[in-house]
Amino acid sequence: MTTMEREAGAPPAAETSSKRSPKVSSSERKSQILWLVGAIVIIAYALIPVAWILSLSLKAGDDINNQRFLPSDVSLENYRIVLSSDIFLSALRNSVGIAAIATTISVVLATLAAYAIARLEFPGKKLILGVALAITVFPVISIATPLFNMWRTIGLYDTWLGLIIPYLSFSIPLSVYVLSAFFREIPWEMEQAAQVDGATAWQAFRKVIVPLAAPGVFTAAILTFFAIWNDFVFGITLTSTEAARPVPAALAFFSGASQFSQPTAPIAAASVLVTIPVIILVLLFQQKIVAGLTNGAVKG
Amino acid sequence: MSTTVPAAAGEVRDDLSVTHHGRPKLSDRARHERRLGWMLAGPAFVLMVAVTGYPVLNAVWLSLFDYRLTAPDDREFVGLSNYALILSDGLFWRQFGVTAAITVVTVAVEFVLGFALAMVMHRALFLRRTLRTAILIPYGIITVVSAYAWQYAFASASGFVNPLLGLGGYNWFGDTVPSLVVICLSEIWKTTPFLSLLLLAGLAQIPEDYLEAAKVDGATAWQRFRRVIMPNMKAAIMVALLFRTLDAFRIFDNVFIMTQGAQGTETLSFLAYRQTISRVQIGLGSAVSVILAILVVLIAVMFVKGFKTNLSQQKG
Q1: What is the domain range of residue A238?
Q2: Closest residue of chain B to A112, computed from CA coordinates
Q3: Is residue B151 part of a domain?
Q4: Of the spans A198-202, A268-272, B33-37, which averages the highest pLDDT?
Q5: What residues in A contact B237, CB-CB < 8 Å?
Q6: Residue ranges in chain B modelled with pLDDT below 50
Q7: What is the CA radius of gyration of chain B?
């Protein structure tokens, strides 16, 4: 279990760095200062736009157009507007509900498929991986426009199910790649060892394999959630009302408190609110996300 | 290794078939393994194919009709004339140009920037965790949010960029090129981290001895990069560039939020959206979707072919 966790969690470069770190020469120390500067620049690069949207969300009234990075006066007015807006709240409900359902189903189906691909010999394995790859590179809009027409005919237009179905088919390929790369590294002999010790096949699977596989499945779930949470194309093409419209699509059609006020600052506040789950997941599971992204793409 | 799996699928029938037909046990196991394989992978496969395969075929079919959603009774088979109409339209080629320009510029900048990011992440011993956490935020953030952040930063009313650059009341969204610059900036900011993580995985696979040996032989940093790092990362570079190119080519969210396609910033994905959803020209919109899909497949094929020939040249 511990070796698996390390393998899954460790960033790819961790090995080389631990080799280097014990004795650091003076020239190495000098270049480390340069790398440190680089690291600080990159952190600033990543965080400044986020800080900007946060700062903008705290501006109220004319302060929005103060043309400065920081607000002259911190106000939570925009959050009050957004959190009392039915459009935003229903969009949030839709996004959370749809993402939760679609992520769960997607990861369960992808786990079964990835297990088969990593562990079993059967014809068509290459076909499945090929189809999965084709879907990940396919232009989403080319699917969304025919679905728009089909969903209207069969009544799935502007429903949760109408979004969940395409989300599944577009998120499963990613999870299959991430998970089959992960499953290939699991020490499956342990399953046999458990059976030799008298466990049934199901017990061996349940008590030995599930704990080993859980970190990988969890990583796939986070990446799937990000993909679905981020979707915009399906969100605007397959919905028309608050019944199913998810957050990114609702943001695009968001207007201010009244018809005449500029929606800039409320949009910024809504943006901050929907970024919070992303930041929490990144803070908690940074290593898993990095490992999942790199394993799936390079080894799979 | 695989012995345990067929047992889970159905032990009893396994035994029966052995005694009745006297088949060797291994082939029987293999047969069960095949069945179990498809039982497990089947649902995912069916879902992937049904939800993408059928709409694609449906789009191909509909693209052969003159079909407006508001006038379904006037639906009429027109053969390939939707394609002829699109391909002979100057506007389509303009949008193709815009899409291609965005793709080339963003992928080129992201590749250079992503490599720098990957190098820093690979080498820096301090702030490792913070660095990785920070760059995952642009990766995870909603593209629409990124688009708003960059748009508001450059907007002449609310933005801080103009005063910073001393540009006064300059309107970034009043003309094609400046609008595209801001669109590309948002796209680059959001997607470079993904590319850099793929490159980082490639970097980590280069044996440290290679670089040490090159150093001992007196290779400069640039030579080490060109002659040791780059050739040893071919696979990672190809994967990263291919994924990002195909992703950039379908750019939609940033354009939709920042300009709604105004000022000549419309891309091919946006054209497909506008024809189908806004103008409900299902026939024409489907034809645009099909053309876009064909272009993406062509790019993928070109990529794979191009990198293969390069690889063989390297060896020879």
Answers
A1: 86-253
A2: B40
A3: yes
A4: A268-272
A5: none
A6: 1-23, 311-316
A7: 26
